[in-house]
Amino acid sequence: MALRTFIKMHALGNDFVVFDARTSPMALGNAQLQHLASRHRGVGCDQVIILEPSKKADLIMRIFNADGGEVGACGNAARCVGLFLMEEQKTSEVLIETQSALLQCRSISSKLISIDMGEPHLDWQDIPLSRQEDTLHLGIAAGPLENAVAVNIGNPHAVFFVSDCSSINLRRLGPILETNAVFPERANISVAEVIDSENIRLRVWERGTGITLACGTAACATLVAANRRGICERKANILLDGGVLQIDWQKNGRVIMTGPATKSFTGTIDIQHKP
Fold first, then answer.
1. What is the CATH number of the domain that holds 81?
2. Which end of the chain, N or C, is less packed with Cβ atoms under 10 Å?
3. Is residue 40 located within the same domain as residue 142?
C-alpha cells in the first residue's frame, strides 16, 4: 500500500486532484492517472496535478489530463495551485513554473485570483499546425463548425464562432476536430457565441478529457481570437458552463485571466491500487 495525501480543488467546476510532491517525489503511470481521474472508480477530476520543487519559481506544476497525457498549461489549475501556495506562504503573489511558461499569480480579493498567462502564439508553426495555414481562418470543418481561429496560449486551441453554442453537439464534434491531422499535438476545441463586444458565451472540449465546465486557456484563446476577428474588445467576460472568467489582452501583448478558485476537500488514496 502506498498512501498519498491529495487536495481536491476546482475553479468554476473544472476540477483537479492535487498532489504535493515537493518533499516526497512521485511518479504515476497512465493507468494510475486514469484511475485517479475516474469519477466512478477513483477520486474523479478533469486533471491530475503534481507539484514539484523548482529552481526558477515557487514550484513546478505538472498537469495530466484524464487520459494520462501531460500538457503544458492549465489556467484554472494555476489559480487553484496559486491559492494553495499563497495560503501556505501567507503572501498575495507567487510564481508557478509549468511546461509552457512561468505564471505570475496574484490574489485580487478573498475570492478572485489573477494569472498572467503570457503572450499568445499566433503563427501556424507555434500552434503547432502540421501545414502552413492562416490561423485566423483555418480550413477545417466538422458538421456546422468551420472557419476556426487557431491560438496557442500554453496549449493549442481552435475556436469556432457560432450563433448558438448550446445547439452544437460538442460531444460528437469535439473528438473529431481534436484529432484532425492539422493538429499534430491534438487541440482543445471551443465553440463561442459573441453576445456583445464585452461578453462571450463559451463551451469547451478539452483534448484528453472531454467537455469541461470551464477551461482557462480556452477562455484566453477565445478572447484573443474574437479580438483578432474584430468582434470584441481586448477585455471581456467569458461565460462558461461553470461560471465567468474575466480575460484582458493587454496592450503589451500579455493575457491576464481573473476568476475564482476553491479548495473542496483533502483525502488520502493508495496510488498503487489496481482498479
1. 3.10.310.10
2. N
3. no
* 24 φ/ψ angles, rounded to the nearest 5 degrees: -140, 90
- Percentage of the chain beyond pLDDT 70 is 99
- With 70 as the cut, is the pLDDT of residue 274 above it? no
- Mean pLDDT across the chain, nearest whole number? 96
Query: Which one from 45, 80, 215, 232 is the annotated catalytic residue?
Result: 215
Contact 149, 228 (CB under 8 A): yes
The yes-or-no verdict on residue 19 having pLDDT over 80 is yes
In a domain, 103, yes or no: yes
Do both 108 and 143 map to the same domain? no
CB-count exposure of residue 270 (10 Å: 0-12, 13-18, 19+): exposed
Active site residue: 74, 80, 165, 220, which one? 74
Residue at 275 is within a domain? no
Query: Does the structure show a pLDDT above 80 at 94?
Result: yes
pLDDT score of 271: 80
148 lies in which domain range?
A: 124-253
State how far the Cα of 121 lies from the Cα of 127, in Å rounded to an integer: 7
The confidence score (pLDDT) of residue 112 equals 95
Alpha-carbon torsion angle 225, 226, 228, 230, nearest 10: 170
Q: How far is CA 1 from CA 4, 28, 269, 270, 272, in A?
A: 10, 14, 9, 6, 6
Is 14 among the domain residues?
yes
Question: What pTM does this model have?
Answer: 0.93
